[in-house]
Amino acid sequence: MAQQRNMDKNKTPMPVQDPDVRNKNFDEVALGYTYEMAVNEARRCLGCKNKPCVGKCPVRIDIPAFIAKIAEEDIEGAYEILSKSTSLPAVCGRVCPQESQCESMCVRGKMGEPVAIGRLERFVADYHREHSTSLPTPPAQNGHKVAVIGAGPSGLTAAGDLAKLGYKVTIFEALHLAGGVLIYGIPEFRLPKVIVEKEIENLKAIGVDIETNMVIGKVLTIDELFEMGYEAIFIGSGAGLPRFMNIPGESLKGVYSANEFLTRINLMKAYKPDSKTPIQHAKKVAVVGGGNVAMDAARSAKRLGAEEVYIVYRRGMDELPARKEEVEHAEEEGIIFKTLNNPVEILGNEDGMVSGMKCVEMELGEPDESGRRRPVVKENSEFVLDVDSVIMSIGTSPNPLIRSTTPGLDANKWGCLITKDESGLTTRDGVYAGGDAVTGAATVILAMGAGKDAAKAIDQQIMGTKAE
Fold first, then answer.
1. From CA 132, how far away is CA 193, in angstroms rounded?
2. Is the entire prediction scored with pTM above 0.85?
3. What are the counts of helices (DSSP H) followed by strands (DSSP E) for the chain?
């Protein structure tokens, strides 16, 4: 059937909740494409033969192929193509920074907006979940066992790829629910937990076992896992150790790491009145940092009832590391950006509660070693920001527990595991690692790409094959 190409220069708009409504609830902000919208957007794709978009996808999805299936109105066919490359399509479609990856290479973007690849991936995954009643079929077992530490994006991806190859895979997860940052970090309004649960259910259906409340390094060690018959181990334990600025007042009541703040809200449902792990419902909140996690924390604080929420960031708006879409959503929801400012002290009252935050104004000087202009303090610019809670979102590092209990497993000065090459092989034979445990805090899709690469290398190691 001949198709009418859609030559509109702009993406099909994504329906979203009204900002003044959504900043008071935890329901998903973006509502997703309708069937008609998805088909219309898919027909903007030119189906480039050299597929420049695929080269920028860390999990190497055949993007033109799955979009062509949508354009043909074969949604299940599109899902089959996605499933060959990713175990978490509904997640990727929501939280991947497509604008700096696949969509940045889209030819349509040269004369307008690129094809909405992420929105289409989300549509296909959601359509499949809502219309398919069958679970994937487990493959034939090959008789080999692999252990995966951590049920976050990298661990789930490695486990899924290995299970599809016939390995008996067991994931050991420290928390009581699988999902890692997808469950405890990313808020419900960006990634509904039912989506993550369904993706994990699909992995279990193909034979992946998940053991929760298993703190590797305490309950079991790497050496003990090898003794149990696992022939290779993948470490995808993330980077959940929060960093602080080491300024006066960080021990006051009302100061949180973004990690703790979001974990309480997302994993422990602290926003519910009957929560067993309540969290302060502050009126004036400062979030220190400018990344995606800072946006998540600020927008969550707003939804908990804060009247004023500030993003305090030492560089300017143009230097914010958060996704453009997340910044725009935060602005729409009333988050106040105090860029070119930096805290120097958190003030407290006689009850030990936060009563304000002393800041200094900054200006951008000469570029530093990263190429970004270094922020420097303006003279005589000190002021006090009136807040009653502070959330520190300046990065995280890997927990040292696994490396401290595993002889021969080396890490760099930031605590990140050292790998020999892109396969993820560490300094310990048979032990691979990927995701935030290696890179420090990064994106979900990069962690998934690392899990995928490690799964391929583990298969080659066990089966004695060489890379193609």
1. 19
2. yes
3. 17, 16
